[in-house]
Design goal:
Number of helices: 6
Number of domains: 1
Shape: globular
CATH topology: Rossmann fold
Length: about 160
């Protein structure tokens, strides 16, 4: 009987939902809520505070560099909190149990590290709808994640054409 319970626990691994606050994330949240309800899963909402803006600190005069970095940290934390709270509220409205996880780092690396735990049944990410020319100039996180060969299934939810 104990082995049956263990098997059920493995089957009920949560869904990992990566959110970044952009418009296309809203459709991913909706899809995560729908799937979680249908599958009886909880959702772990992951937001990664991307240090991308910090790379410009070397271009700021020395006297303002510390203030700039503090400002960026504060803005990233505030926006991250707003993003996960919106996701949490939407999921709770759908009756979906959820948990919030906020990490710092390059999003691709952080998501891969979280997935390596093997604790998730599915990764859901949103994707902006952009013309092919714009894809070459952007960091395409969903495509990079899809190309890793990770055993965790990946669902890429395209945003609306107006999201770009």
């Amino acid at each position: 009987m104990a082995s049956h319970s263990l098997a059920e626990g493995e089957i009920r691994r949560p869904i990992l939902l990566a959110v970044d606050g952009d418009c296309h994330t809203e459709k991913a949240i909706t899809e995560a809520g729908r799937l979680a309800c249908e599958l009886g899963r909880r959702v772990v909402v992951l937001h990664v505070e991307d240090p991308y803006l910090k790379q410009f600190s070397s271009e700021i005069y020395a006297q303002g560099r510390e203030e700039y970095l503090e400002h960026v940290d504060r803005c990233l934390a505030e926006e991250g909190q707003k993003t996960v709270e919106r996701a949490r509220t939407r999921l709770l409205e759908d009756g979906v149990e959820n948990e919030i996880v906020i990490r710092q780092g390059e999003p691709f690396d952080v998501i891969r590290a979280v997935l390596e735990t093997g604790a998730y049944s599915l990764l859901i990410v949103g994707r902006k709808t952009l013309s092919s020319g714009l894809w070459r100039r952007r960091r395409d996180l969903p495509a990079r994640l899809a190309g890793t060969g990770d055993p965790t299934p990946l669902l890429i939810v395209p945003g609306a054409a107006s999201d770009s």
